[in-house]
Amino acid sequence: MKVAIMSDSHDSIPNLKKAIEICLKEEVEKIFHCGDLISPFMVPILGEFNKEIHLILGNNPGDVYLLIQKVSEYPNIKFHGDNAFLEIEEYKIAMVHYPKIAYALAKTGDYHFIFCGHTHKYEIKEFNKALVINPGEILGKEGVPSFVILDLKTKQYEKITF
């Protein structure tokens, strides 16, 4: 299964639109957004990906009440609050905003994949059997916008920049 991991959109409408276009073109099956989407007006853009999306808040949550209201209009977007702990097929996945929490979770050996964000810097590390993926940022403030496309079965990943 091909999935996309992205984070830190920070209200960048054009960059999120481009990331969604790439995901659709690359036939990604699910998106994991690791936080800092921020404003409710970003939800319809995220929702243009008409398949399953998992979303957490991050440290810049914006107006959480309005964000939850807007997300409720999109049944394909699963809002998890601060963190998500999921089983997708046979894979245990944790999604958190902060890398330090991701590394701690990876060291438990309980997860196959841990997705995070916050630093706006691309980084992939392996601990025990867990692959920790920080996809960089959709915003493009610290460099070119980036996210990751990952094949859950093979653990093959690609950094996508635009």
Topology:
Blueprint: E1 2-6, H1 13-25, E2 30-33, H2 43-47, E3 52-55, H3 64-71, E4 77-79, E5 84-88, E6 91-95, H4 99-107, E7 113-115, E8 122-127, E9 130-135, E10 146-151, E11 157-161
Parallel strand pairs: 1-2, 2-3, 3-4, 6-7, 7-9
Antiparallel strand pairs: 1-10, 5-6, 8-9, 10-11
Can you give a write-up of this model?
The protein is an alpha/beta fold and 162 residues long. The protein has a single domain (2-161), classed as Purple Acid Phosphatase, chain A, domain 2, CATH 3.60.21.10. The protein is built from four helices and eleven strands. The strands form two sheets. Strands 4-3-2-1-10-11 form a six-stranded mixed sheet, with no helix packed on it. A five-stranded mixed sheet has the order 5-6-7-9-8, covered by helices on one side. A hairpin with a 2-residue loop joins strand 8 and strand 9 (130-135). It starts with a strand and ends with a strand. The relative contact order is 0.21. The mean pLDDT is 97.
Order of helices and strands: EHEHEHEEEHEEEEE
Largest sheet: 6 strands, mixed
Cross-sheet strand order for the largest sheet: 4-3-2-1-10-11
Which ranges are low-confidence, i.e. pLDDT below 50, for 5 or more consecutive residues? none
Gyration radius (Cα, Å) is 14 Å
Keywords: Metal-binding
Family: Belongs to the metallophosphoesterase superfamily. YfcE family.
Cofactor: a divalent metal cation
GO molecular function: hydrolase activity; metal ion binding
